[in-house]
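Recall the central idea of this unit: under ordinary conditions, the amino acid sequence of a chain determines the structure it adopts. In this exercise we apply that idea directly, starting from the sequence alone.
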Amino acid sequence: MRDSERRTETDEGSTAAGGGPGEGDAASAARARMRAALRGAERMLARDAFLETIHERLDRLVADAPASYDLDDRPDFYGNDDGVVGELERRTAEILGTEAAAFFPTGTMAQQVALRCWAGRTGNATVAGHRLSHLEVHERDAFAVVSGLRMVHPTDAPRLPTASEVYDLAEPFGALALELPLRNAGFVLPSWDELTAVVAAARDRDAVVHFDGARLWESGPHFGRTLPEIAALADSVYVSFYKSLDGISGAALAGSEDFIEEARTWRHRYGGQLFQQWPAALTALIGLDRELPRLPEYVARAKVVARALGEGLAEAGVPWFRVHPEVPHTHQFQVWLPHPPELLDEAAVRQAEETRTALFHKWFEPTPAGPPGVALTEVTVTAAALDWTADEMRAAVGEFVEYVGRVRG
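Accordingly, the structure predicted from this sequence is:
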């Protein structure tokens, strides 16, 4: 997940929790300052689309889209099959090796539809999933409140469940939902053998398998398998078009022809049959053409970045830190430091403002709550990181530590 998405989820939670007008003004000013600092940075590990203005994003769309779709075609009309949305659905199914795919405005909607369909087909409204999954942490209990489902947890460990844990679940379940990678645990993936074993365990329990594959696109290098090989393990797969492919928004649900046909019906019922979605569909097609082929390069580079950051923190004499996973499974990973998020945010902003280097973006308290005074940030590695040398990264993190010391006073 990019920092922009994490920020949105965190801000929504803060708004729901309340806070006075002054607190809101201060938070808004802090966000504006950070955005300005990041926009002005000349060196970053990833340059998120949220840093662009609307004008800049439109200019980029007009410049990039003709290579991926004929702009002389008419706009889509309620997702008509012979338009840009239909083309995106066909391309997605082809890339994943599934019979069909359906475009959804959000991943939350796609997942609720998938699990609701499976509950109807299996006759069991219980879903086995992780307590740290997106379904549990970031969708406001939609699976229960909207879709009438309940969740059981094979494990609370910060990893995907094992086959033995699925076998040992004390009650029947209709679907096993696996988030690949498990973002809140550090974008972690199981091994290929572990994944095939847990899928087999679900089958033995007479359950279907759904992949929350918002970041499935970049998981192939870790597994050493193609996307069709990975998707073939599941009965349904959800993928996102903006988390790793630089799309504006949108997601897809992929699976068998008859399952996707049923999902289209529920998509309409859930309010997902939008009049026009061509901007999101166009950017998704651009992402499939441009970013998807580069993700293995980003994954490989993330390993270099993680090692350099760890070495830089050690060389700077930081008494405790954590780069997790030490060898990233995808092009995203976590960095933990023993300071409050506000202090680290201020250090990051000052470094960006004064040196035009934005090594880290937003820092957060761990979720679920960890020890006080500890914060984490999520590092994403994209094309912006390819020109940095390891020595430059080590120097930049040493410089960041100096800024932390200055902020502490």
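Confidence is low (pLDDT under 50) at residues 1-21.
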